[in-house]
Amino acid sequence: MKTTIIGSFKLAAAAVAFLVATSHVQAAVAPTADVDFGAVGSGVYSASDLIPVSDPSVLWFGFQLSAASLVNLSTLGSPDPDPENPNDTVLALYDSSGALLDQNDDCNGSTLTSCLLFPSLAGGDYLAGVTGFPGVFIENWMLDPSGAGGKVVTLELTVRELPVSAVPVPAAIWLFGSALLGFVGMSRRTSVKS
């Protein structure tokens, strides 16, 4: 009887461990972008859509940078006729691994807009998430707690590709080059004398 209870306990513990492991795996899968800007270069991109009424209530905007760029993201909530239910956005940016790069609730003196500025964002795939207050973004494209949905929001994405700086030639190359020329000159001089 004792071994049956221990065996049942081990089986239950294994089932719980499996469920926890699979829930983490599911959380690590990137969501599909609701609006995909695709590959972006220097310019301004804008799109509007509805934050879904679901759990989690997030509207996803995808974009891809081919090179390091200055990136500015900002939201503009739609005017809401109900002053008791304003369209207060929360904005976040994730890289392709699900790492939360930054998030913002209020910016530029407004409690209803959100903005993020990245002076030098590396090339790669990114997902910007927009939800309604009081949503808080966490790692792996997740919200805690879920924010309000059902509002139209506009995301403006401004990109300015950074210039590629010239790689300086190290001083050692110049020294090596002059030493090599000296050796060539010495070898000619010795071959002429012989």
Radius of gyration: 28 Å
Low-confidence residue ranges = 15-26
Name of the top-level CATH class of the largest domain: Mainly Beta
Distance between the termini: 103 Å
* Mean pLDDT rating: 80
CATH topology of the largest domain: Jelly Rolls
Helix content: 25-40%
> What's the CATH architecture of the largest domain?
Sandwich
Q: Which oligomeric state applies?
A: single chain
Q: How many strand units?
A: 11
User: What sort of overall outline do the alpha carbons produce when their principal axes are compared?
Assistant: elongated
Question: Count of DSSP helices?
Answer: 2
Main-sheet strand order equals 1-3-8-5-6
Beta-strand content bin: 35-45%
Number of domains: 2
Taken in chain order, the helices and strands follow as HEEEEEEEEEEEH
Helix/strand class: alpha+beta
Structure description:
The chain has 194 residues and is an alpha+beta fold. The protein folds into 2 domains: 1-30; 32-161, Jelly Rolls (Sandwich), CATH 2.60.120. It is built from 2 helices and 11 strands; from the N terminus they run αβββββββββββα. The chain has helices at residues 2-27, 171-193; strands at residues 35-40, 43-50, 59-65, 69-77, 89-95, 100-104, 115-121, 124-132, 137-138, 142-143, 152-161. It has a 5-stranded mixed β-sheet, with no helix packed on it. Strands 2-11-4-7 form a 4-stranded antiparallel β-sheet, with no helix packed on it. The chain is elongated. The termini are far apart. The relative contact order is 0.20.
